[in-house]
Amino acid sequence: MSKKDIHPIFERLLQREDRQKRLGQQSKVLWLTGLSGSGKSTIALTLERMLFENGFFAQVLDGDNIRSGINNNLSFSMEDRQENIRRIAEVSRLYLHSGIIAINCFISPTKAIRAFARDIIGAEDFLEIYINAPLDVCESRDVKGLYQKARRGELKEFTGIDSPYEAPEQPDLEIRTDQATIEEATEMLYRFLLPQIQIKN
Amino acid sequence: MSKKDIHPIFERLLQREDRQKRLGQQSKVLWLTGLSGSGKSTIALTLERMLFENGFFAQVLDGDNIRSGINNNLSFSMEDRQENIRRIAEVSRLYLHSGIIAINCFISPTKAIRAFARDIIGAEDFLEIYINAPLDVCESRDVKGLYQKARRGELKEFTGIDSPYEAPEQPDLEIRTDQATIEEATEMLYRFLLPQIQIKN
User: What is B15-134+165-192's CATH topology?
Assistant: First the structure.
């Protein structure tokens, strides 16, 4: 191996387009935002499966695989919440450039934090999906018992209780999960997504 | 959507095995370690292309897409070097569980730091590849001019100059890049890898 050889041979570098073509899809990042209990993760995981069964290749990024892994050294301080979202956006960007559809579900409560994520990912590949259910509906679901804890003061700055949620003004799609079943909500998202991920001829 | 609906339906969750089957491969993490200039990135990018042309799906993680993205807020302090490797290992683990072969090229100079990465990824999926060339060969290549800078004292704790490189004692594969062309080195790695990534029937 000579010095000359060691330079990357750029014309042979695998491109995002090559990967997308192989996977038969255009990659995108779906950014699901909404209150805890609004149904983000459930819809994301159902969509991931539906996409797979229809020949697409997607990856859900959520608390389960992110908070327990790459972000396991972050607290819930304001600074760390920003770093949490930054890393998620960067991981999504890696997946995007691997040709894979990333489905992210994180509360991401402020317009600023979602704009920050959009900047990292690139506006042309970022789809903001507002998973909307009224607070009282989310609180009545309380799958993880987090609202109860927040009401008892055991969780500080919990979105919707003692920390605000800023709804997107112009999301790419809004889904009211108090007015739809999981199947309906996922179907709605799938139909919205399809023209965005199909390879154009 | 009722409270009951909101629980993830686990039997329908997409598994690593589903993804591997779709991609026609077993996923692994290849961890290429070696001095700056040993040829890690060149081999990794050539392998990535070769795998793709043979129907596999891999992703190189290197300084170009990691240091400029998810790790762009890390310095070269000892603490940050550890955090650098931790995040790389966590990103690799995400790819691994997405069914994708991750090809990592980072100097990762100490046995401890590589053991740390192996722990995060899981020993059964971690392949340590030692890209070995003598220091004087690497220094004479000096693609990025880093050795010159280090010799002038402009880069501190540069591996091989004023910071030690601990060679792997029992790497899964060792490639001497001073004794092989890029093509030969990549071919060697490909042949080693093939039985590990082919789906067993």
Answer: Rossmann fold (3.40.50)
How does DSSP assign B121-160, residue by residue? H-GGGEEEEEEE--HHHHHHH-TTSHHHHHHTTSSSS-BT
Is there a contact between B37 and A6 if contact means CB atoms under 8 Å apart? Answer: yes
What is this model's ipTM? 0.93
State the DSSP code for A156: S
Confidence of residue A143 (pLDDT cuts 50, 70, 90): confident
- Give the span between the Cα atoms of A160 and A157, in whole angstroms: 9
Is the pLDDT assigned to residue B65 strictly greater than 70? yes
Q: How far apart are CA A181 and CA B6, in angstroms?
A: 10
HSE value, Cβ hemisphere, 13 Å, CA-based, for A152: 6
* Contacting residues of B for A41, CB less than 8 Å apart: 8
User: How distant is the alpha carbon of residue A28 from its chain centre?
Assistant: 10
A5–B181 C-beta distance less than 8 A: yes
Is position B36 annotated as part of the catalytic site?
A: no
Q: How much is the pLDDT for A88?
A: 96
A171 Cα distance to chain centroid: 13
Q: What are phi and psi of B163, to 5 degrees?
A: -150, 135
What is the Cα Rg of chain B in Å? 19
User: Residue type for B109, please?
Assistant: P
Measured CA to CA in angstroms, residue B26 lies from B84, B123, B155 at distances of: 26, 15, 40
Tokens 């290992």, residue located? B89
A68, A96, B172, B196 from A91: Cα distances, Å: 14, 9, 28, 26
- Picking from B49, B87, B133, the nearest residue to A70 by CB comes out as B87
pTM summary value: 0.93
List chain A residues with CB under 8 Å of B67: none
Q: Domain A16-134+164-194 has what CATH class?
A: alpha beta
Q: How far is CA A123 from the centre of its chain?
A: 14
Alpha-carbon gap, residue A64 to A78, rounded angstroms: 21
The per-residue pLDDT for B3 is 46
Rounded CA gap, A93 and A59, in Å? 12
Which structure tokens are listed for A119? 């900047």
On the question of pLDDT at A24 being above 90, the answer is yes
Ordered by start, the domain boundaries in chain A are 16-134+164-194
